[in-house]
């Protein structure tokens, strides 16, 4: 049940500034607007309150408002990205049965990493959990490197979304307008990237809370459902005959499995947003978090299995890395490509949000400044200062835009980023944090699993980096 909260500072926005000294001395700086003897949190409600910091910027406080359903929708949309399109080709490289098993295995290991991070978030106290706050409780000197890995990973995925958007929109326009090729502007990928940044991607990226994206995430999941319908229709339709039997392999073991392993593993990466889920949930108990994780990972695994199996059975071992390119040109398929565009537009902010949070922590590290010591306030979400929020978000959007219009092939770069960043936040960090923060539990099965995730993460990173380096040679 949601709790009621009072304003940290009364409605008089002219309250005096807050010092960055420990929490007890905060009250002496606020002045008459808050009585030291009165309770900090009462039963009156608030939507948001603002206090003035020492540099004149504003810090916002929000009442946790996310529900289990909205959190699961956002987390599912973070998972269900463009990796879904590559699942049939990944399945073709390892065979039908091993491929189905790998999807389930990747989902289970990813879910375990999410669970460990969520349990560790409870050790932080309040609602200001992050990779940085956990690193301060475990390995303080390594916190900045953890945040750098997360920010680089999220930024790289965001750039890939813009590149996919720029590549697909000319095809979509060509499908709906017969003479579109004659208009050079409509065939220019840079035009569509620019238009999306100005009209949708940019504005959505400035939203402060992850829960604010629940409706756009729902639209994106509808786009995912449409893609599933395309795959299902072409599989059962008599107008599209199946491939020859020898093109379907139930088992296929080769060294290609190591190059395809990242597709299965990184398709479930959403760990950068689990702390926003924990901080913004009305009821962020362990039971509620488990429901969110199970719902998002379970639904993603089901969709991956469906698309991978039916896509592979439709085209056999000749299936391309992007399943949507295999289907014949039609308005039905064109709407599917448009659905992908919608998906990446609404998925971009879900990468910008954790990227911004990590950059904020890096900036705090260099400024040697704690965010007003307000982590001590329980059950209030501390939102970043307004000026910094605008500045960091603008830098992320502009930088990703410049990279996307300049470079069209980022597959190898993203492979390196995914092999390091995604593996780190999905397996290595959850295991390290859990081992450190729950050492009083002894070697129970959870800590044993956490150790396994650490070893597994380093193995995956080593193997993937080795094969990526070989691609360069």
TrEMBL record:
One GO cellular component, as annotated: fungal-type vacuole membrane
One Pfam family here: Aa_trans
Subcellular location: Vacuole membrane
Protein name: Amino acid transporter transmembrane domain-containing protein
Transmembrane region(s): 78-97, 103-121, 142-164, 191-207, 219-237, 257-277, 289-312, 332-350, 390-410, 416-437, 449-469
InterPro entries assigned to the protein according to its UniProt record, in alphabetical order: AA_transpt_TM
Keyword annotations of the record: Amino-acid transport, Membrane, Transmembrane, Transmembrane helix, Transport, Vacuole
Keyword Aminoacyl-tRNA synthetase among record annotations: no
Superkingdom field: Eukaryota
Membrane topology qualifier: Multi-pass membrane protein
Family: Belongs to the amino acid/polyamine transporter 2 family.
Coiled coil (UniProt feature): none
Keyword Transmembrane helix on entry: yes
Domain Amino acid transporter transmembrane: 66-465
UniProt GO MF annotations: L-arginine transmembrane transporter activity; L-glutamate transmembrane transporter activity; L-histidine transmembrane transporter activity; L-lysine transmembrane transporter activity; L-serine transmembrane transporter activity; L-tyrosine transmembrane transporter activity
